[in-house]
Specification:
Shape: globular
Largest sheet: 3 strands, mixed
Radius of gyration: 22 Å
Structural class: mainly alpha
Strand order of the largest sheet: 3-5-4
Number of helices: 13
Strand content: 5-15%
Distance between the termini: 52 Å
Number of strands: 5
Amino acid sequence: MIKHQFLIVICALLVVSCNATGVKIAGVDVGALVNQGVNVYESQIFDERKEQQLGENLASVLVSVAPIHQDKQINKYVNKVGRHLANHSSRPTLNWQFAVLDSDDINAFAAPAGFVFITSGALLQLDSEAELAAMLAHEIIHITKQHHVEKIKELSLQSALTEMVFISADAYQTQNDSDRSSRNLTQWARALSSMATELYSKGLDRDDEIEADIEAVSLMSKAGYDVFAMASVLQRIASITPTDSALASLYSTHPQPEERLDEIASTLDAFDKFEGPNLQERYQKNIFK
């Protein structure tokens, strides 16, 4: 990682002397290479505009795999629960959007900038609003902690540095700054969208998943839910046959539920006297109507 960062700094410094394409050494367009190096550096800076576009790109990937459930009432209910949680998070001002994916899989997903999805298969396995809150809170923490952003930055750095070695002289054609900015953003979006497939198939790092579980418990407490619903969700998942195809994507991207239970045990102990509601009746009225 230090070597990668060093290369980026060197490229950024060289821009003073090689700011345009056309300077060649051994047939390599050094100007284009330097410009690419600056773009690599800039790709590591995720302002709110980039985070929003990244979130939209990743959300579109998820929706292309499984469509939004057509039941508007269920989506409205999930949004209400999700936004209540998000309002108690560290980033309440994001444009939070929650939706149900029409899929038999038992899983939930997050994309940067406030996009959260849960499958209809998962909803059918849950028993209360507090359990729904547990799954949504886990995904909300992924967003507030920018776990996907950091993973994408890691992947984009690896990809961009590889491309620097093979850059061709015609990589940058003459065009005005506005067109170049638009084209670069489009290329950036395409590259990140392709990374999304790898990200959602392999999942985040184990530490990210455990952190999301632990922080989700605290978020549930702030929002007034029964925090022990997090344990009941994990126990429910553990009770399903591991070979069940509905759990394939969850098991491939998350630690085993027994391991996750062990990791949150001490956190739950701190809430042993907290008695938040689980709102079972309200959940079943909205989901199993």
